[in-house]
């Protein structure tokens, strides 16, 4: 990647909304009204994609395609788009909740981007586990480090992975990571994360846009979590969900900074340690604009930005781009996400500018209500 082309001075905002917490704004017209030339070219393929998704969903709804059911209940956590909604922190929050309530969860995940997609990887509970992201995927590696008490099964066939978990561990419930579209596995609760900064009607389907399914698919959701409400008004998105699925229970969540971790040394800092100091931000996630806006909301003085594609594995070209970002911005530190930190190894430890990973948590505004809604649906499965 050419560093001079990749550097961003301001947050890109594909939804066309003004993001709260930003000191500068760049407004881009909504995709539903004016699409970039490349996306316009891909619209015929997006129409074919829609037809395929519609046929597949109809096939599952009518029983032409069969689902498989595990012995233990399944809670799916997913989204409509290709990442960027805060799904992974939500998986962590739900796993911690279920563990605290004695449900003994296991996480079933595909492990996107790993070397051997056909291999099943079993990560038993272990306080010291630190799996290689290249072998298990960046998100499973992050989950394994953040949730050492929870067994994690990485397998493309989530039913097979779930059966393995039930044989190996005392599993009370399965947590299906990124499972909304994985309809081959029956689930008892569908939790869908939606980003408050991105309206549903303002996005196109793949490959012209970022949607995996049309918004009508929200009719399958039981619980909807509108994330990043600290950056945008959740009202319009909530009204869209209500029109599609009046029965869905809707909750709001914010993204909070817990601490900063030096990627080189492992040293931790309180969240306000670099507040007001110039930092340059980079990430390879689904919604980089929201991360950059969150940094400003948390009090960072962001003097430079660089976004990579989602799940980007940093190598020669990536490190050159980061060096260029540091040279042009003169920051006190480079800041990135925890997921990106998984993909930064090995690092040049002689670097003069520290790289700090932001350890975040999802904070549900009605935590008690969300817990009760989720647990009530799980308790109902015991009568099956």
Short description:
This protein is an alpha/beta fold and 384 residues long. It folds into two domains: 135 residues, no CATH class; 199 residues, P-loop containing nucleotide triphosphate hydrolases (Rossmann fold, 3-Layer(aba) Sandwich). Helix content is 32%, strand content 21%.
Give the helices and strands, then pairings.
Layout: H1 3-6, E1 7-8, H2 37-61, E2 74-78, H3 87-100, E3 105-109, E4 121-123, H4 133-136, H5 138-146, E5 152-154, H6 158-168, E6 173-177, E7 189-195, E8 223-227, H7 235-244, E9 249-262, E10 268-269, E11 278-283, H8 288-297, E12 301-307, H9 316-329, E13 333-337, H10 338-342, E14 355-364, H11 367-381
Parallel strand pairs: 2-6, 2-7, 3-5, 3-6, 7-8, 8-9, 11-12, 11-13, 13-14
Antiparallel strand pairs: 1-12, 4-5, 9-10, 9-14
